[in-house]
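TL;DR need structure tokens for one chain.
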Amino acid sequence: MEKTVTYEDVRNNEIIKTYIQKADESLSALGYTEHSFAHVARVAEVAGYILSTLGYEEREVEAVKIAAYLHDIGNLVNRVDHSHSGAIMAFRILGEMGMNPADIATIVTAIGNHDEGNGVPVNALSAALILADKSDVRRTRVRNTDISTFDIHDRVNYSVERSVLRINEERNQIKLNLEIDTQYGSVMDYFEIFLQRMVLCRKAAEKLGLDFKLFINDHPIL
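>> reply
TL;DR here they are.
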């Protein structure tokens, strides 16, 4: 029987909590940055902000927040193709929760297209999820406490003291502004690992009718 499944329903679901926790434990074992509740909750709020600011209906805002909260559960299976396995997991979970097929389809599409390896912003939800996910670069996601052993991913994430994604008043531009402490990571380090992500962000912004801009320490980069 179909019913309205809300973002709060998803956040409070014990099965989902377990999958997110276990997926993050796998990434921790592999040396990846934090992908747990702090990350998915932040991505959900930013994705919701994007669509609500652009005037999308509340149903779509709620759906993108659900997609964002579930987007990384596929890491439970494997980091490789986690967007696809996560989409399949979300398909089953949301179906069992009673969500209607149309909303499930949109959410599954967004999850399956969020990764820069093979993702494409095919709809508004996937575009907002991409922008929210790829803009979550920050020091607190780094697990390694020994700075002397940082790899480039640790250096870049640790160097970012603040990350802000904002849409302008004219609703035609979205700007990612990063404050970077260059003693830990340089602008070139950032582009070495994040160029593909920034290209995807530009495509996602275009899908939403926006121009994507990247600023680092208040200097325009893209």
